[in-house]
Design brief:
104 residues; mainly alpha
C-alpha cells in the first residue's frame, strides 16, 4: 500500500524555471522541494504553539521599530556582546572548599 498520494500542480513558466534552478542548486527532487515549501508555509501560517498576547505585542513593537529604522545592525549587536563578555584585568579563580583527605 502507498504511503504517499500523488498530486498535480500547475505553475507559470517563470516560476517553474525558478523552481528548477533552486531544485538543481540544492540537489533535491521536485517532491522534496515542494514538501519543504509546504512545511515552511504551514509552520508560518499555522504554528504549533500559539503566541501569547504579550508575545504578539512584542513582535508588533519589533516590526514597527524595523519600519522606523530604529534597529541595531547585527555586527554592532554582536560586538556589544563580545565587549560585555570580556573581562578587564586578570582572570580570577575562585577557591571553593572541598573535602580534605583524612591522610593529612
Amino acid at each position: 500500500m502507498r504511503t504517499t498520494e500523488i498530486m498535480t500542480i500547475s505553475l507559470p513558466p517563470a516560476m517553474l524555471r525558478q523552481f528548477e534552478e533552486v531544485r538543481k542548486r540544492e540537489s533535491r527532487t521536485r517532491s522534496e522541494l515542494v514538501r519543504e515549501a509546504l512545511r515552511m508555509y504551514f509552520e508560518q501560517r499555522y504554528p504549533v504553539v500559539q503566541p501569547t498576547r504579550a508575545e504578539v505585542a512584542a513582535l508588533r513593537r519589533g516590526r514597527a521599530a524595523v519600519v522606523r529604522g530604529d534597529v541595531l545592525p547585527l555586527g554592532k549587536f554582536l560586538d556589544g556582546l563580545e565587549t560585555s563578555n570580556r573581562r578587564t584585568g586578570p582572570k580570577r579563580v575562585s577557591k571553593t572548599p572541598g573535602k580534605r583527605s583524612a591522610a593529612r
